[in-house]
Amino acid sequence: MDLNATYHDLNGKSVFITGGGSGIGASLTEGFLRQGAKVAFVGRSDASEFVDEMEQKTGNRPFFIQCDITDIPALQDAIAKSADQNGPITVLVNNAANDKRHATEDVTEDFWDWSMAINLKAYFFACQAVVGGMRDAGGGSIINFSSISYMMGNAGYPAYTTANSGINGMTRSLAREFGPDRIRVNALAPGWVLTQKQLDMWADPASLAAHLDRQCLKDHLVPEDIVGTTLFMASNASRMMTGQAMVVDGGVVVTG
């Protein structure tokens, strides 16, 4: 991974990432490790090999706890253990999500609840779990991953886009609530990032060509493209930025 900037204040910071062992999350974990941060992350699948790989590549070993983030007590416990291991968490990255495709007429109450649990509910309770430690530490940065999907009005996953929009509303309210404690809360909305999951499940040639045609920049996004913006939002370089939604999508949507 080639990083174009070093944020010296991230060296030694205690960082917690949900879904930090695969996809975009794995690149985020590596990016923070390369800044010298103390990174803890959770994921549903065993990430022991990834932890060893990161230590070998960066010289900095992350702390991993296997956890389903829809199990809120388990998520809260993982956050507490990570704070014990690395010190009070001052950077939280809510990254884990699931964009499973579905049609409105096929959605059951159980599916709706599951989608909200992984794509919105877990975000809120992770934020709740870190604010006390951030307040005691004198501040912190929370980065909630959303998506441009709801901005585009995409069909094919209405529960997911509903949660994405909800993340923005939650982000703005928490930024207002915890700003006096110097806790910044921002959202990051990537475009179509070609993780291995996306390539395996949905990135057929026609869809890729159609999406690229909508981008101003004619390169497909890869996970590493999201890392630099996340590091900036976590660092003091963005110390007066809060309640905002940053878009990294190659120029598909226009904000402002």
TrEMBL record:
Keywords attached to this entry: Oxidoreductase
Pfam families cross-referenced by the UniProt entry: adh_short_C2
InterPro entries (UniProt xref): KR_dom, NAD(P)-bd_dom_sf, SDR_fam
Domain Ketoreductase, first and last residues per copy: 13-205
Matching SUPFAM superfamilies: NAD(P)-binding Rossmann-fold domains (SSF51735)
Annotated SMART domains: PKS_KR
One Gene Ontology term of the molecular function aspect: oxidoreductase activity
Entry's family note: Belongs to the short-chain dehydrogenases/reductases (SDR) family.
Protein name: NAD(P)-dependent dehydrogenase, short-chain alcohol dehydrogenase family
Source organism of this protein record: Thalassococcus halodurans
